[in-house]
Design goal:
With 92 residues, the protein is mostly beta strands. A 3-stranded antiparallel β-sheet has the order 1-2-5, with no helix packed on it.
């Protein structure tokens, strides 16, 4: 259960990844515009296919550019430059 949102920041385009959602809880379609504060879906059931068999949790990532990167994690520290620190945006 992944939703990907394309956004434009003053520094350029980014893709926001919301992972481990119950796709049955959303009615979003490709091309829909999201509003601030809009509920996009609910977390998937823990230990199910929604969460890849893991506990109930949200994967949230902000990737630089318009390329879709579904991983939400990096294999080595050099790849961190492609991701933004989410804490800087949640605090605003």
């Amino acid at each position: 259960g992944v939703i990907i949102q394309g956004c434009q920041l003053p520094t350029g385009p980014v893709t926001v990844i919301y992972g481990h959602l119950a796709l049955s809880s959303t009615n979003l379609k490709v091309g829909d515009k999201l509003q601030t504060g809009q509920v996009i879906g609910n977390l998937g059931q823990g230990f199910s296919s929604d969460t890849d068999g893991e506990r109930k949790h949200l994967h949230l990532g902000i990737h630089r550019g318009s390329t879709i990167n579904l991983r939400g994690y990096v294999s080595n520290p050099d790849e961190l430059d492609q991701w933004l620190d989410i804490a800087a945006y949640l605090a605003k």
